[in-house]
Amino acid sequence: MGQSSVQQVVENLFAAVARGDAAAAGELYAEDPVFRMAGVPRHLGGVVEGRVAIAADIAQRPPSKLEVRQIFADGDNACAVVKRTGPVTATQTFRGSDREFTTYECVVFKLDGGRIKEQTTYVNWLDAYVQAGLIDLAPLFD
Question: Which pLDDT score is estimated for 63?
Answer without folding.
Answer: 76
